[in-house]
Write a structure and sequence with these properties.
heterodimer; A: 478 residues; Alkaline Phosphatase, subunit A; 2 domains; 9-stranded mixed sheet; 3-stranded antiparallel sheet; 13 helices; 18 strands; 32% helix; 16% strand; globular; B: 991 residues; alpha+beta; Jelly Rolls; 39% helix
């Protein structure tokens, strides 16, 4: 296939200098805003071609560590000594007015079963659940005043992922692919590494909504052939090549008869890219070329199976970053209670969940750092909401969207920072309160995108990931 | 205006100064600033007091406002239209009304906001709560009368930009009446075949372009076959058309296609993109939307029957209210009401912690679908504020909301053949006859209420309870509604003695078994405000029935009771085992005091339920009184008639339910200020958009006004949709948005011409489709006329907006799949019925996953595959089938490698290639002897074109060499050929 389509972009290894040069020469000259109005471009230009940013980006990739179910802030990163003092008290008497909870089964004030200690230069308080993360705490910037609008998983998941509590909107990964394109045509721009659990709300957490379907997240299962239709049906490459050559030959005739229609031409070109993806994807998933120390660092030899599973996901995430994939999301392994959703058995569930993610995430941060990739990779750790400082029943915690903790690390993030605070119970955010839109605005900002200018015309409106909201979480910016 | 406000403020201040003595604590005041003490000021020197107030304001309040409020509430562009930089600003207030009621701390929204109660509006300032001390200062200030010397800096700063609906209506093209433009003259009068061609040609003339040549016969045939039916032409159809040299050859083809069953299947699917058709609700557990497919089948029948479009619109909006509904011609059931099912194909979540928000979100989706589908308007954009660009006010949005709130959802039992209706008539007549032959018993039935009242705790119960319904007499209580034929009042005439079931009928009740145990239907209360925690219903029921409370239209309690425990009685919880009992709805009702609700009593077929009285109460139900109230009547003499009656009742057909809307209790909903139900403004009656007349009326009145040529949008929007589907791009490219943010029409006169003619022609969709596909415009080749130079095209029509040639289009997702089935010879053309379950690959996991369906979808057309919101078919999604959440009249056109991977490696494609080859070999005994003829036929089937000899030779060479490469496996090589033909762009694209 010799034809070179004008919308075709280079496969991989494009340096920033080359990229900027090509932008200057018009290869990627479709400005973010101008791509939006009409979808004719989508049919003739690769929707994933790299696009210029609004300003100098601080990060080029995002790894979103999605803590499905809602980790408890008061048991992890938001230390509230008052809970110890009033442990077992009636929350209506001590905390006061309580908002309706999802399960409406309010127990007593519940002190954290774990001890907090200050770590690192920043002196950030981390509970004993995260011994590995405590070692890299100076790389993390905490937002201890995050809020959501929903107490129910599905709506909160859609909200966290798409900026809207309803189903069917584009996921943040889709927006970032739309705004930036990708640097590697042989891999999707938005990859979800499925640890075993698809969050409530299903695949629509990773959908493209009203954006073209090219931007939707590709959910990768573990194994060599992580996505559908990536494995050739033919027993050997030659057989498939013969077919593709035959198809290409006929297609050239069709193209000529179609007056070189650019949409047909782009469709022809897609076959070559697809052919290459068939080998690029399995190669990505093959971890045997990682040395033993690295594998051990990520917990691949851990006796706890889920550490192994999540460690593998983290290691693949790093490999995806190396290959230029724009947005990588990790979902949680199954079998740790019900995700982070500890309506009961808080101790057992949170210990398993922390054990699953602690070592691999710390390894990911260290590994990215030593390879010089952390500066260009934004890592975000967040659940869809937090948990109540009072018990659900006797030994669980219910959903709490009014104030919880997330953290960010990597490209453009000021390690060691801490922003905002909740009240003395860890219940409501009261200082520097932020919402999910602000997280999205900040993530886009670090990628070089002004969230108010990355728009897509749909439904008579210029839609945004942040809708009409969003302000930067300045305190975490380096 | 301002003068009055000021005067009242002064009065107010004065009152506070006079009356609030001692009411307030002295705020902590570390800075030592003078704080005027209201307690000392009663009647004292006003001037001195004013000075103290001024100092308090300047030292404590102004700096606080400047630091914490001005960022968003000062200047030209403020949040919530609220200025806090002048007294006038907070007096007139913003979207939520006056921010401060001087002297009244508890009714001042500003105080509520800074306290972070979030009862009315979000906590302010939004990022951080003020300190307790700062909040106390503001409370103090308000309590003392909110002294404020600040004048607005300029008039413009504090005057919100006026929303000029009439100005917008007059200035935007789509609001103007539809005209009937003269057909233009053209340079070459021999070209046009239809008037519409002249509109196209006139524009080309003025651009200096000439139309393309006619497409060759087979290109046109493939194009029109896919466009009208979504399927490729068969070899026989190709040969027939090739051999038809008559003038009417194209007309013959078009008539055949429009007359085909497949026409409705194709065009119903276009409509389903608008009404976000799905078979499940999505969200966490992806619960099923029962009976959704009945709406899909309704659409297919409607498009095939060429139901006039204005009728189709009326049926969608208010088919339940039509006095003369359209009956199915063969099965004579009510078709019209099925159209209303579209209202309820929305997504839905369970256990919303904020049920009013849930209700408002669903309504927003319904209004969005309504507005875009019928009117091309983005009405839902006016949910939180007046539309930013169009002539649609927030009041317009809430007028539609009022229409919806005055309605409710129902499962409606169809009665195919009106068979049950006939039997019910016979049953009623027989019961009358039998009753007439009975003689009055010496003992007359005693009144039920007297029996109830004899319970010892009755007086106490009655004094603490509200009667919701007492089913006495021969009619239902006011505003109670039924559907189906099951529920009938049992009065104290002797008919009560005549039961079709083993359960006796009791006077002064309503009973769903009076006409037979098999009768189905719903009995529904008017909506009422929940004022107490329990609802007691005296009833007799078996386990097949359901009684439930629908709170704020939250419907999902039938599948999930979390947060709605105790609001539903069903299965064994409703079974009274033949006895009369007090049954109680309670539990979570206590959370919804003050909310609106209605009761629904559902008999879905077998068995029966009878209801006596319904009370709302704070106390337990009274004790049951096991008194015998019905005197025995000897029926022995008429046992044969009774037998006849029971036989009739047994012969009733089981019901067939469809989703529909129903008339509820009329509501006038308040505007939810900035979209928040906690912050309610003026009430709006149900009415149509002001820009379309603003008339109040029933939903049927609304439907009539929407489905009218007087309305400038409806006809334009629909003809444009049809144009879009046939030509690849609408005359208005933004097919769902005819507002100022949409794209202006390329051919406004043509649009009006088509709209006028469409209505004049009885709103016939089929005639309009026929007209367009027989036009010269549609028949053009997709290659530009060589008479137009490349420069000319680049300058005058680079995007082909003027249609100087036909557009090249990729096949839609459904046609790619259906075409494969037709070409492989495996399509099962069976129409209608429940959807085939989605085939689930290992990559499609998540909550609510169902058993996987067959890989080949039972070889049915794609329109008959289920659409599970959380498990959408990835093959179809890859080719841009839209996700079913909001209307999408125009699909995105993506062109990505994932599509190539699907065609190369998807097991469905591979399986069908195998089927195709097997069937071809089986069908042709001489397969091996003339492989090139086989190849020629395969190309014709897949591409709709004759392959050249050279191409046939190349393909044969491929089979030959691939057979060798496959180690002699000839069948595999033929399969490779078959699959390759589908991968070629000649299959995937329409020229």
């Amino acid at each position: 296939m010799k034809r070179h389509h004008c919308g075709r972009f280079r496969d991989s290894g494009l340096s920033r200098r080359e990229m900027l040069a090509s932008v200057g020469s018009g290869l990627g000259s479709l400005a973010v805003a101008s791509l939006l109005a009409d979808d004719a471009d989508a049919a003739t230009t690769s929707p994933l071609a790299p696009k210029p940013t609004h300003f100098q980006p601080r990060a080029k990739h995002v790894i979103f560590l999605y803590m499905d179910g809602g980790p408890s802030q008061v048991d992890t990163f938001d230390h509230k000594p008052l809970l110890d003092k009033y442990n077992g008290a009636d929350p209506a008497q001590t905390i006061g007015n309580l908002a309706p909870t999802q399960f409406d089964n309010v127990g007593k004030v519940l002190a954290s079963p774990w001890k907090f200690k200050r770590h690192g230069q920043s002196g950030a308080a981390v509970s004993s659940l995260f011994p590995y993360l405590a070692e890299v705490v100076d790389d993390l910037a905490f937002v201890r005043s995050m809020t959501s609008e929903f107490s129910e998983h599905t709506s909160a998941n859609y909200f966290l992922h798409t900026g809207n509590g309803l189903q069917g909107r584009p996921s943040m990964g889709a927006w970032m692919g739309y705004g930036l394109g990708t640097e590697n045509a042989q891999l999707p721009g938005f990859v979800v590494l499925n640890g075993g659990l698809i969050p409530p709300g299903g695949l629509d957490c990773f959908g493209s909504g009203f954006l073209p379907s090219a931007y939707q997240g590709s959910v990768f299962l573990p194994g060599k052939n992580p996505v559908a239709n990536i494995r050739p049906h033919e027993p050997n490459d030659r057989l498939q090549r013969n077919k593709l050559d035959l198809i290409a030959s006929f297609d050239q005739g069709f193209l000529a008869e179609s007056d070189d229609d650019p949409e047909v031409e782009a469709a022809i070109q897609n076959y070559e890219t697809a052919y290459q993806m068939q080998s690029a994807v399995p190669e990505l998933m093959e971890l045997s070329d990682e040395d033993a120390a690295t594998q051990r660092m990520y917990g691949l030899e851990s006796s706890f199976k889920n550490t192994n599973v999540f460690g593998r996901q983290c290691l693949i995430a790093r490999r995806l970053v190396e290959r230029g994939v724009r947005f990588i999301e990790l979902t949680c392994p199954s079998g740790n209670g019900d995700r982070w959703d500890q309506h009961h058995s808080l101790v057992d569930g949170h210990e398993k969940n922390c054990r699953t993610v602690d070592q691999p995430i710390a390894a990911l941060l260290k590994d990215l750092k030593r390879r010089g990739l952390l500066d260009s990779t934004l890592v975000v750790w967040a659940g869809e909401f937090g948990r109540t400082p009072f018990a659900q029943g006797s030994n669980g915690r219910d959903h709490n969207p009014f104030g919880f903790t997330i953290w960010m690390a990597g490209g453009g993030v000021r390690g060691g920072a801490s922003v905002g605070e909740t009240d003395e119970w860890g219940y409501h955010a009261i200082r520097d309160r932020f919402e999910i839109h602000d997280l999205h605005a900040t993530m886009l900002h670090l990628l070089g995108i002004d969230h108010t200018r990355s728009t897509f015309r749909f439904s008579g409106r210029d839609m945004r990931l942040t809708d009409v909201h969003g302000r930067l979480i300045e305190g975490v910016l380096a | 205006m301002r003068g009055i406000a000021l005067t009242s403020l002064m009065t107010c201040v004065f009152c506070v100064l006079l009356t609030s003595a001692g009411a307030a604590e002295t705020p902590e005041n570390k800075s030592g600033t003078p704080v005027p003490d209201a307690a000392d000021s009663g009647g004292a020197d006003d001037t001195q007091n004013e000075a103290a107030q001024a100092e308090f304001f300047e030292t404590q309040i102004r700096p606080l406002l400047v630091e914490h409020c001005y960022d968003c509430h000062s200047g030209d562009d403020v949040e919530a239209s609220l200025w806090l930089d002048s007294r006038h600003g907070w007096q007139t207030g913003g979207d939520s009304g006056a921010a401060i009621v001087a002297g009244d701390v508890e009714n001042s929204i500003l105080i509520d906001a800074v306290r972070y109660t979030e009862n009315v509006i979000p906590g302010m300032p939004p990022d951080s709560k003020l300190s307790d001390q700062q909040i106390k200062l503001l409370e103090r200030w308000v309590e003392m009368g909110a002294f404020d010397p600040r004048e607005p800096e300029s008039d413009s700063a504090s005057a919100a930009i006026k929303f000029d609906l009439e100005g917008r209506r007059q200035s935007h093209w789509s609001w103007q009446p539809i005209t009937s433009p003269a057909v233009p003259d053209v340079n070459d009068a021999s070209w046009p075949r239809d008037d519409l061609d002249r509109f196209i040609q006139a524009r080309l003339d003025s651009a200096g372009l000439v139309p393309a040549a006619d497409a060759d016969k087979l290109t046109w045939l493939r194009r029109v076959s896919f466009d009208l039916t979504g399927l490729p032409p068969t070899i026989d159809q190709i040969h027939a058309f090739e051999n038809d040299d008559s003038q009417h050859a194209k007309t013959t083809v078009v008539d055949r296609l429009i007359g085909s069953m497949h026409f409705g299947e194709k065009w119903a699917r276009h409509w389903m993109d608008l009404t976000r058709y799905a078979d499940s609700y999505g969200h966490e557990f992806d619960y099923a939307i029962d009976h959704a497919y009945e709406y899909r089948d309704y659409l297919i029948r409607a498009f095939n029957a060429d139901v006039p479009y204005d009728q189709l619109v009326r049926e969608h909006i208010a088919g339940d209210l039509m006095t003369d509904p359209r009956m199915n011609p063969t099965e004579s059931f009510n078709e019209s009401i099925i159209g209303t099912g579209f209202w309820y194909l929305h997504e839905a979540t369970h256990a919303p912690t904020d049920v009013l928000q849930n209700e408002a979100d669903i309504a927003s989706n319904q209004i969005d679908v309504f507005g875009k589908t019928f009117l091309g308007l983005t009405i839902a954009c006016a949910r939180c504020h007046d539309h930013k660009f169009d002539a649609i006010s927030t009041a317009d949005y809430y007028a539609m909301f009022s229409h919806l709130q005055s309605s409710c959802r129902q499962d409606y039992p169809l009665d195919p053949g009106q068979i049950n209706a006939g039997k019910f008539q016979q049953i009623d007549a027989l019961r009358d006859q039998i009753a007439d032959r009975l003689s009055e018993s010496s003992e007359s039935p005693r009144r039920r209420d007297r029996e109830l009242a004899s319970a010892p705790d009755w007086p106490r119960f009655e004094s603490k309870s509200v009667l919701l319904a007492d089913f006495r007499g021969d009619r239902l209580p006011t505003d109670w509604q039924t559907n189906g034929h099951a529920f009938a009042p049992i009065d104290d005439s002797l008919r009560y003695a005549v039961s079709t079931t083993d359960s006796e009928l009791v006077p002064d009740t309503v009973d769903s078994g009076a006409r037979g145990a098999k009768a189905a239907g719903t009995l529904r209360s008017p909506s009422f405000e929940l004022t107490d925690t329990r609802i007691h219903i005296r009833l007799r029921s078996d386990a097949h029935q359901m009684v439930r409370l629908v709170i704020d239209n939250y419907e999902m309690n039938k599948v999930q009771q979390l947060l709605f425990a105790g609001t539903i009685l069903q299965k064994k919880n409703i079974d009274t085992q033949g006895k009369w009992r007090w049954m109680t709805l309670s539990g979570d009702i206590k959370k919804y005091i003050g909310h609106r609700a209605y009761l629904e009593i559902v008999d879905s077929g077998p068995g029966s339920i009878a209801v006596d009285q319904i009370w709302m109460s704070g106390s337990d139900a009274p004790a049951d009184q096991p008194t015998k109230v019905v005197p025995q009547i000897d029926l022995a003499a008429i046992s044969s008639k009774i037998q006849q009656l029971k036989q009739l009742a047994k012969s009733l057909r089981p019901p067939r339910f469809v989703i529909a809307i129903a008339e509820g209790t009329r509501r006038e909903m308040p505007i939810y200020i900035r979209g928040s139900h906690t912050n309610q403004g003026a009430k709006v009656p149900p009415r149509i958009l002001e820009a379309l007349g603003g008339q109040t009326g029933s939903r049927l009145d609304l439907a009539d006004r929407i489905a009218s040529l007087d309305n400038p949008l409806t006809a334009r929007v629909m003809v444009n949709r049809i144009w879009h589907h046939l030509l690849g791009k609408g005359i208005v490219a933004s097919v769902d948005d005819f507002g100022p943010q949409g794209i202006a029409p390329t051919h406004p006169e043509l649009l009006d011409h088509l709209a006028t003619e469409f209505a004049r022609d009885g709103w016939s969709i089929q005639n309009l489709v026929r007209r367009i596909v027989l036009s010269r415009t549609y028949g053009q080749s997709s290659v530009a006329n060589p008479a137009n130079s490349a420069d000319q095209i680049a300058n005058s029509d680079p995007t082909n907006a003027l249609l100087h040639r036909m557009n090249i289009r990729r096949l839609p997702a459904e046609s790619i799949r259906d075409g494969i089935l037709v070409v492989a010879g495996t399509l099962d053309p069976k129409p209608f019925g429940p959807g085939v379950p989605t085939h689930r690959t290992p990559f499609m996991t998540g909550r609510g996953a169902r058993e996987s369906g067959p890989l080949d979808g039972d070889r049915r057309r794609t329109v008959y595959l289920t659409v599970y919101r959380n498990f959408l078919n990835p093959f179809l999604m890859t080719f841009d089938m839209p996700n079913p959440f909001g209307p999408q009249g125009r699909r995105s056109r993506s062109n990505v490698p994932a599509q190539s991977l699907a065609m190369m490696n998807d097991p469905f494609v591979i399986e069908q290639a195998e089927q195709w080859v097997k069937q071809s070999i089986a069908a042709d005994r001489n397969f091996d002897q003339h492989p090139k003829r086989v190849i020629s036929d395969m190309v014709l089937r897949a591409h709709g074109h004759h392959a050249s000899d050279a191409q046939i030779e190349q393909l044969w060479q491929f089979v030959h060499s691939q057979t060798a490469a496959r180690g002699g496996d000839q069948q595999a090589a033929w399969q490779d050929l078959a699959q390759s033909l589908w991968n070629m762009k000649a299959y995937l694209f329409l020229r």
